[in-house]
């Protein structure tokens, strides 16, 4: 039978597990982080970890959800919706999201390690993620629906797929014939995609 914890103890241990997870996941990754690593310094046994989280992946997801509002603020409110027209907004969104993936070790780790991304996705609760008020993906879909008349294709899922393809470029930069030209190539690709997704009058 798992030990009982007071509300204060549970809060304290949960915070320690989240702190350990953030430090370990961003430095050594999901796979190399063991339960023993995660519970170090918390005062609980490995088996007791499951009183707090269903899995390592659930802990990772909790960390991502905790940062979701900040990410949305940067890529949606501070980029996509800050511009005056749809085309400029898409350009700004792609640049801000790529900067986020490059500078945010928690989100960026999953983009550069697809096997870890798959592990987290398998464990996530889609309802919890999609219902989160600060979900950037939901906010992007809302923007595309609102600005449908400015877009060449009214299917938001197709447009999201095209945007995702651009966001996968960092994974393949070393496969380019001239990796040293990656910044220029990426910048040109962003312009081409934003122009191609919007109507000429944009």
Distance between the termini: 63 Å
Shape descriptor reads elongated
Q: Number of DSSP helices?
A: 11
Radius of gyration: 20 Å
* Major sheet: none
Percent of residues in beta strands: under 5%
What is the share of helical residues?
A: 55-70%
Estimate the mean pLDDT confidence.
Answer: 90
How is this structure best summarized?
It is built from eleven helices and no strands. It is mostly helical.
Structure description:
The longest helix has 25 residues, at 56-80. The chain has helices spanning 7-27, 35-39, 49-52, 56-80, 86-103, 105-112, 114-123, 126-130, 136-146, 156-167, 182-197. 22% of the residues are buried. Helix 4 crosses helix 7 (114-123), helix 4 runs parallel beside helix 9 (136-146) and helix 5 (86-103) runs antiparallel to helix 11. The termini are far apart. The protein is 67% helix and 0% strand.
Ordered list of secondary-structure elements with their pairings:
Blueprint (H helix, E strand, L loop, with lengths): L6 H21 L7 H5 L9 H4 L3 H25 L5 H18 L1 H8 L1 H10 L2 H5 L5 H11 L9 H12 L14 H16 L5
